[in-house]
Amino acid sequence: MSPEDAGVLAALFAQTGSVLLEEGDDRDFRVVSELPEWFSQRFPGVVRGGGVSLAGSFPVLDHFLVEARDHWRHGDGVSAVKSGVWVEDEGPTDQEVPFEATARSVAGRRLLVLDRPVMRYADEVRFAQRARESLLDNEALERAVAQRTRMIRAREDEISVRLVSAAEFRDSATGAHIRRIGQSSLLMGRVLGLPADVLDVLDLAASMHDVGKIGTPDSILLKPGPLDPDERRIMQTHTTVGARILRGSQVPALQLARTIALWHHEKWDGSGYPDGLEGEAIPMECRIVSVVDYYDACANARPYRGALPVETVLEMMQAERGRHFDPEVLDVFLELHPEIVRISRAIEASVGSGAEE
Questions:
Q1: CATH of the domain at 309
Q2: 129, part of any domain
Q3: pLDDT digit string, tens, across residues 187-216
Q4: 20 to 30 A Cα–Cα from 151, which one of 7, 44, 178, 223?
């Protein structure tokens, strides 16, 4: 490097507030550029062209020099490595001051630039602060939306539960029945891999499968004996009555409840009611409720008969595999039967203790 070039370089570094150093064979550095004020204060007595030891002056720099020396051995004379900005406490007030080091190999010379990028560091701090404030604002907004969503969902659930509870004023057995159907359907839905948004409302929606019985006369609903053909036709209308009660809602739980209320008596072979749907044309949620509802109705006492033995009910259901019931859904039910029995007992205990009131 010519004296003229060296002079230009020294002036350039003086203007930028940076200092250019060159490492010697003894690993001390020689100052190549003019000395900015901050460097002279940090290393008093050092002059341009003089030597300075950087060891121990900056802990971060000590680590960076390991990487820098590797670059000096293998550098291509074009690329450089940077330490990234680090912060030191400086002065009587322990003010935070940013530093950055850059290592470059030029014509075999091991050059090191020390810089205090105060303006850039301040800009980065402001940017980070704005980003942090934006994140905090977004988090606050998300929390507000989540809270509002929970409030809306709680109101929706309360309205739905009150609608379902109307059945209990007419038939206490039906009240326990709807709770068993809801919880058992949710258990099966999880095992069968229903989507999370469906599982989120399945318990409540399945509980409403018989809401249409509000429109069934007591003389039929509470009849102690078998229904005649005309009475049975009227009883079967609880599916379409329930669908009419629940239609037109924008609430996901009520939308699913309408589907279940309408089609939970459809059969896998197409012989069910009200629409004679067959196979996979029947929504999975309805196929689940169909199995759970059949079991619960047979295994528990009804106004027209006593409870059937569980073994008898399971045999009856297995005989209907592929006819009344989706084979896959029935198999899952049989696998989960012990857990479903536990759910039923817990509900009966709750009703018996008055905890539901």
A1: 1.10.3210.10
A2: no
A3: 999 999 999 999 999 998 998 898 888 888
A4: 178
**Domain annotation covers residue 135:** no
The CATH number of whichever domain residue 44 belongs to comes to 3.30.450
**What's the total number of domains in the chain?**
2
Is residue 331 predicted with pLDDT exceeding 60?
yes
DSSP-derived secondary structure for 7-52: HHHHHHHHHHT-EEEEE-TTS-EEE-SPPPHHHHHHSTT--TT-EE
**Cβ atoms 35, 15 nearer than 8 A:** no
pLDDT at 326 (0 to 100):
97
**In whole angstroms, what is the distance from residue 178 CA to residue 203 CA?**
10
**In this structure, which amino acid lies at residue 297?**
A
Instruction: Let me know: does 104 contact 113? Beta carbons within 8 Å.
Output: yes
Average pLDDT over residues 286-301: 93
Q: How far is the CA of 275 from the CAs of 187, 258, 263, 281, 320, in angstroms?
A: 27, 14, 8, 11, 19
Mean of the per-residue pLDDT values for the chain?
83
Of residues 174, 176, 159, 149, the one with CA closest to residue 246: 159
Taking residues 55-68, what's their average pLDDT?
Answer: 87
Asked if residue 188 belongs to a domain, the reply is yes
* 127 assigned to some structural domain: no
User: Is the pLDDT assigned to residue 90 strictly greater than 50?
Assistant: yes
Same domain? For 338 and 197 the reply is yes
Instruction: Give the pair of three-digit tokens for residue 118.
Output: 């105060």
Measuring CA to CA, which residue among 325, 341, 331 is closest to residue 286? Answer: 325
Residues 80 and 174 in one domain: no
Contact 310, 317 (CB under 8 A): no
Tokens standing for 223? 């009849």
Please tell me the distance from the alpha carbon of residue 44 to that of residue 313, in angstroms, as a whole number: 96
Q: Which domain, by its residues, includes 178?
A: 164-353
Residue type, 162: R
Residues 170 and 277 in one domain: yes
Q: Are residues 206 and 69 in the same domain?
A: no
Q: Identify the H or E element spanning 81.
A: strand 80-82
- Asked whether residue 4 carries a pLDDT value surpassing 80, the answer given is no
98 and 170 inside one domain: no
Q: Specify whether the CB–CB gap between 21 and 28 falls below 8 A.
A: no
